[in-house]
Design brief:
Elements: H1 3-15, H2 18-25, H3 29-43, E1 48-51, E2 54-57, H4 59-88, E3 91-97, H5 104-111, E4 119-125, H6 130-134, E5 146-150, E6 161-169, E7 171-175, E8 186-187, E9 195-197, H7 204-216, E10 222-224, H8 232-241, E11 244-247, E12 258-264, E13 270-277, H9 284-299
Parallel strand pairs: 3-4, 3-5, 8-12, 9-10, 9-11
Antiparallel strand pairs: 1-2, 5-13, 6-13, 7-11, 7-12
C-alpha cells in the first residue's frame, strides 16, 4: 500500500477538504481526489463521504484513519532504526578542519568516492593551528584521526603521512583602492617598493625560500615573514594598513576589502593542501585515505 496515498487520505480527513489538503501537500485537488479514490479501491470500502461542504470520514474511514496513523508512525520508527543500524556498521573517521583551510577540493573528491558510504565522517573544528591541535605530541593524533591542512606542515613532524589533494598558486591579496587592483595580472616590477606579508607559522620553509628568491631579484620588494598563522586578524591588518598579503585564489572572499590578483613571480610558487595522518591500529584511517584516493582517480586532481 502506497504511503503517499495514505498521507493524502490523512491530510484530506484532517482538513475536511481536498482543496485544503492539496495546498498542504502541494498537489492539485484533482490529484488529491485521484489518490484517495485509488486508496479506497485498494481497501475495498469508502473511506470519505463527499458533500458540498467538503469531506468527512465514514465509519470504516475512522478505523482506517486510526490504524494508518499507527502504520506510518511504526514505519518511521523502523526507518530510523534501520539508519542507526547502518551507521553503527560504518567506519568512524574524525577529520580535523579549520576555517582557513580550503575544503572545496576535498568535498568534490569525497562526494565522488565510490566507497564514501562505508564511512561515518565527522568534522572536528580545530583552531587556526590545525597541525598543533592534531599533533600536539609531535604527530600523536588525539582529537582526530586525520586532518586537512597545508603541505608544508609535514616539515614539522617525523614519520607523518601526507596525501596532497589540491595545489594553489601564490597570489596577492591587494587592498581595495590600491593601483594594483586595476591589473589583471601583476608582474614583479609592479611590486617595486611594496611590502608583502607572508605569515610563516606552519609554512616556514616555503615562506623563507620565497622571500630569499624575491629579495635576490633586487627589485626593492620587501617580504615580511612573521611567525604567525593565517587568520582573520591577518586579513584585517592588511586591509587596514594597505599591506599586500601573499594569498591563494580560494581565499578571495575572506575579506571584502582585499582583492585577489594573480602574479607572475618568475617561477612557480604554490601551496598544496591535503590530508595528514598516522596509521591506526585497526587500519580504518588508512582505508579512509584509500577511499579518498579512489575518489580522486575519478574526478582527477593536482
Amino acid at each position: 500500500m502506497d504511503s503517499k496515498m495514505i498521507e493524502t487520505f490523512l491530510a484530506s480527513a484532517d482538513q475536511g477538504s481536498f482543496t485544503r489538503a492539496g495546498e498542504i501537500l502541494s498537489l492539485t485537488p484533482p490529484n488529491v481526489m485521484r489518490q484517495v479514490n485509488l486508496l479506497e479501491e485498494e481497501v475495498g470500502v469508502p473511506l470519505l463521504i463527499r458533500n458540498s461542504k467538503g469531506v468527512e470520514l465514514t465509519a470504516a474511514g475512522k478505523v482506517f484513519y486510526r490504524e494508518s496513523q499507527n502504520l506510518l508512525r511504526q514505519s518511521s520508527i523502523a526507518a530510523a532504526r534501520a539508519r542507526r543500524a547502518s551507521a553503527a556498521t560504518k567506519k568512524a573517521v574524525r577529520l580535523g578542519v579549520s576555517a582557513m583551510n580550503p575544503m572545496q577540493e576535498f568535498n568534490r573528491i569525497w562526494r565522488c568516492a565510490p566507497r564514501r558510504d562505508e564511512f561515518a565522517l565527522s568534522l572536528i573544528n580545530l583552531p587556526t593551528d590545525v597541525n598543533g591541535a592534531v599533533s600536539a605530541e609531535k604527530g600523536d593524533f588525539r582529537e582526530t584521526d586525520a586532518a586537512f591542512c597545508s603541505g608544508p606542515v609535514i616539515d614539522h613532524f617525523a614519520e607523518i603521512d601526507y596525501f596532497p589533494l589540491s595545489s594553489y598558486p601564490l597570489t596577492c591579496a591587494v587592498p581595495a583602492g590600491h593601483p594594483l587592483t586595476q591589473k589583471e595580472k601583476i608582474l614583479l616590477p609592479d611590486l617595486q617598493g611594496e611590502t608583502l606579508l607572508f605569515p610563516a607559522r606552519s609554512n616556514g620553509r616555503l615562506c623563507w625560500e620565497f622571500s630569499r628568491d624575491i629579495v635576490a631579484r633586487d627589485l626593492g620588494i620587501r617580504v615580511e615573514t612573521p611567525l604567525i598563522f593565517y587568520d582573520q586578524q591577518v586579513f584585517n591588518y592588511c586591509a587596514e594598513h594597505g599591506v599586500l598579503l601573499i594569498s591563494i585564489p580560494c581565499w578571495n572572499e575572506v575579506h571584502p576589502s582585499l582583492i585577489d590578483r594573480p602574479v607572475d613571480w618568475g617561477r612557480d610558487w604554490s601551496l598544496s593542501y591535503g590530508l595528514i595522518w598516522r596509521e591506526d591500529k585497526n587500519g580504518v584511517t588508512a582505508d579512509f585515505i584509500r577511499a579518498v584516493q579512489e575518489g580522486m582517480e575519478i574526478v582527477g586532481g593536482l
